[in-house]
Structure formats: structure tokens, C-alpha cells
Amino acid sequence: MKIYGFFFLLLIPLLHFSQPNTEVFLFDLNSTNGKLELSNIKNISNNEGYDNQPSFLNDNTILFASTRNGQTDILEYTISNGNKKWLCNTEGGQYSPLKIPNQNAVSAIRLDTDGKQLLYRYDIETEISKPLMDTLVVGYHTWFDKNTIVSSVLEGDIMSVYVSNLETHKNRKMDENVGRSLHKIPKSNLVSYISKKNAIWTINALNPLSGKIKFIANTLPETEDMVWLNATTILMGKGNKIYKFNIKTDTDWVELVSLQDYNINNITRLAISHDRKELTIVGEIINE
Description:
It is a single chain. The chain is mostly beta strands. About 0% of the residues lie in helices and about 55% in strands. It has no helices and 26 strands. The chain has strands at about 1-5, 25-30, 35-45, 50-60, 60-70, 70-80, 85, 95-100, 105-110, 115-125, 130-135, 140-145, 150-155, 160-165, 170-175, 185, 190-195, 200-205, 215-220, 225-230, 235-240, 240-245, 255-260, 265, 270, 280-285. It is globular. The N and C termini lie close together (about 5 Å). The model is unreliable at about 1-20 (pLDDT under 50).
């Protein structure tokens, strides 16, 4: 049995180390009565090297970071026909692509060949790019609204969570020693993030407007990648299994589905379509 080596990507500046040979898988998703059914699996990256950080541009289009010619760039995958298209062509590598609200544009972390790392805006049609913020070393981010970004920012050997207003150019530090998983909580004015301050990591909710923070739940042990299935249910992957936690009814994580039959292990990133009908999972293929 050959198992590809895997290391969690914690911070973008550490990318001079070997990157894991991860793949991005797409599943049809059916969630009813607390049960999760995954079907129609597709390996949409199917590429030697690092493929990671998927997000949905829309319900028919997925963006993710993919390796080409030794560099990591943004790849667009169309679900309906399987077509792929590169979205940018720069000397620097691109990571963590996200749709910018109300714009035909994508935000992504760019790591230039000189080591400079900034969050950029990429126009989808023209491919013209420009920095969104030039003072913070952003590792991961999410959009709260069209003018507000919540990000995990590299500070020394940890990351801190910041709220940045693109109109006023003000950055507010909200918490420190945080993880990479940042998500707008459905049907709320809150953003979730992972706190690593204590031995048991926690999922916290941040109100970017008021600055208030509240505890939601403990993570799975030493696990930081998650997605909101809906306004009350969180999904996390660990090993080859997907777990769920309903913040209203559950007291512990509940195993929902195993990906053992698909030979997928070391699950990390998850992303869900806006219509909640598709789920992407990043993991490794175990070849027997």
C-alpha cells in the first residue's frame, strides 16, 4: 500500500516546504432528517501535486488552487460539463480564491517570488489584478459583505483574526492564535473562526460590526476545517469521516459518513454550494 504523505497547510509563507499531493473531490449532497448522503463522486482536480482550497463561484462553478508547472494558480471548474480554465497568469502563486460579493471578480492570496504576500483582487474577464490590502499578511479570508473582510493574518508564529473595512482602510484585530477556517454563518451577521488559545480548540462566532465574540462549540480534536451545512449545523472532516454538530441539539460530534470506500483519507477542506446540493472535499487518495 502506498499512502501519499500529507502535511496540513497552516500558513502560506511556509510553502517552500513540500506541498501535499491532495485532490479536490465533488459530491452530490442530500441532507434530510439529519442524515447526509453523498453520491456521484468526481475527482475534479485529478492532478499530481497540490490541489486545495475550493470555493463555489456559483452553483455551477468551483474555484480552487491547483498546481501547474511547479506553481499554484487559480483553476475554474464547471460542474455541468467538466471544463477547466485558469483564471490568472502571474509570476506569483495564488491561493484561497473566493468570489467577491456583487462583483465579477475573485479575491485570492498571492505569494510573489520575492516572498511578498498580499490579498489581491482578480477581475474574471480581464485578469487585471490589484492588492485589496497592502498592510496585512493575510493567510486566509472570508467576505462579510462587499466592503468588509474577515481574515486570519500572520503575526510571528501565529495567526490573528482581523476585520478590515475596504472603504475606510481600517483594520481591527479581534483575537489571536486562530486557525485558517473562516465562514459567514448562514442567516446571521456572524462569522465563525477557530480559536487555538487552549488545548481544546473552539469554534467561535464573531460579529464584525460590534466586535462581540461568543463560543459555539469545541472542534473535533486538533481539527480546524469546517463548513456550515445550514444555519445550525456544522460539518467537519477527520481522517476518512465526515462529522456533524448541530448547535441547537447536539452535545458532541456525530459521525455522518465514511469515505473509506472511496479510498479518500486525511480530509481537510470542505466547501458547500449556495443551493446546498453539492459538496467539495479535499483529501488524499490511498492507493492499494
